[in-house]
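Title: [Solved] Metal-dependent hydrolase 3D structure

Original question kept below for reference.
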Amino acid sequence: MMTTEPTHSTVDTDPGKIELHARNVAFDLSETPLHWIPGHPMSSNMITVLNLLLPEGERWFVETFNEALPLIKDEALAADMRGFVGQEAMHAEVHDRAVENWLRGHGIDPTGYLKQMEWIFRSVLGPREGTAEQKQKHLIERLWLIAAIEHYTAILGDFALNCTWVENGADTAMADMFTWHGAEEVEHRAVAHDAAAYFADSPLRRARAMALAFPFLVWLMARGFRFINSQDPSVADKSVLDKTRLYVGSYFRDSRVGVFPKLSKLALATVTYFKPGFEPTDIGDTAQAVAFLAASPGARRAA
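Solution (posted by the thread starter after getting help):
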């Protein structure tokens, strides 16, 4: 029986250094309903936002890491970064397919939101012109922003590995897709931090990156949630008051039964980022992630 309590690697469970690599996966969403967690439509829609948000973000991760790799002289770190790049590229591809083959099939036109994501990640957060020194400074700022974002993807990955989607009758293909992604986020959770710290590490850099990452992600998720609900027939025609009641009631009910993360735990996890001696490996259990990845139906189907 899964729980929603966070997990941590221990001396007994930690498998030690593992080689990161992209996995071929295939998820058949042809029979997956829009509200893929039965009885929990708002959590279904909020988690579905990740299908819209992640592809452009992960392509930005890949491009930024490819920009940094020629400057890395530590071969072990470079190998981890190449594994990270492969996994993130596969994540982007899988979520792109989900949007095109599943979300559009349910009458949700994602064009407007996807264009916004393209502009943000390609134009606003893309490389800048300037001197070599200015370009490297901007590269380091982007690496720390990615590290801060990866703090949250690791937290959400740990949640996916320990939530109650399956117990609540969630569509098996969609649950497998998000849990596969979450498990790989736990597996490579230290790489972005290590890459940023290789160039320059300081409490100020961490704080500045987190101060940007937290409101940035909240805004993008809220915007995507509103975007999907504006096209979801079960929500679109409700009044503002009725929508507010629905959202608040759904959050408390869904987080209580473990199909949606508790905001209090996300807030606490944000604070832990600033603890002296914090390491990304403090989040999640590598052994649990690797075990799931070995058994994932989507990964086994594509093997």
